[in-house]
Amino acid sequence: MPPTEIEEGSGYRYYAPEQQQRAIWIRRLRDAGLRLDSVQAILDGDDDEANAVLDDWVADIQDRSSVVLELANDLRTSIQGRATSNPSHRTSAWMDAAILRAAIRQVSSAAHADEVLIETRSDSASIVATDRYILAARTHVPASIVGVPSRVTLVGQVPGSGVALSFGVEG
């Protein structure tokens, strides 16, 4: 938004009273993380375009917010596990052996890794492997979980047909 006057000595910009509300909207939208092209589309576009940009922005924020909340909860659980050395804090996970074996083989061969991380949530598990350059993951692997979200690292061979994992909270 071009100022109505720029002071030569200080470079301070002055705006007319009729520009005040627009400047306030620009600052608020920028402080909220919106890109300048989106701010311009909202303030200068037609109503349909402005509403579409706002809808997309809110949907993106809601998606990121749910990911951040899940991550924060996982970290809190991990922090709690570090502070508690009580062995009764255990997690048991039951998964179909064929599905688990296939998931482990898939991620370990994709990432050329000898270590696989299994991370449990309340009703599923994620299987992850990396060789520092390639990250491979299978998420939402069906599982029956009893206990708090946990992690275990498997090193070496893929488990056989009888798979029952029981492990403590990562500390």
Provide a quick synopsis of the model:
The termini are far apart. Mean pLDDT is 81; it is low at 158-171. Helices cover 43% and strands 25% of the residues.
Lay out the secondary structure.
Layout: E1 5-6, E2 13-14, H1 20-31, H2 36-44, H3 47-83, E3 90-94, H4 97-111, E4 115-120, E5 124-130, E6 135-142, E7 144-146, E8 151-155, E9 165-168
Antiparallel strand pairs: 1-2, 3-7, 3-9, 4-5, 4-8, 5-6
Could you please describe the fold and organization of this structure?
The protein has 171 residues and is α+β, with helices and mostly antiparallel strands. The protein folds into two domains: 5-80; 90-168, DNA Polymerase III, Chain A, domain 2, CATH 3.10.150.10. It has four helices and nine strands. The strands form three sheets. The chain has a four-stranded antiparallel beta sheet with strand order 6-5-4-8, with helices on one face. A three-stranded antiparallel beta sheet has the order 7-3-9, with no helix packed on it. The longest helix is centred in the middle third of the chain and has 37 residues, at 47-83. It is elongated.
- SS field, number of helical segments: 4
N- to C-terminal distance: 52 Å
Strand tally:
9
Shape type: elongated
What CATH architecture label of the largest domain applies? Roll
From the alpha-carbon coordinates, what is the Rg to the nearest angstrom? 25 Å
What descriptive keywords fit this protein?
single chain, 171 residues, alpha+beta, DNA Polymerase III, Chain A, domain 2, four-stranded antiparallel β-sheet, three-stranded antiparallel β-sheet, 25% strand
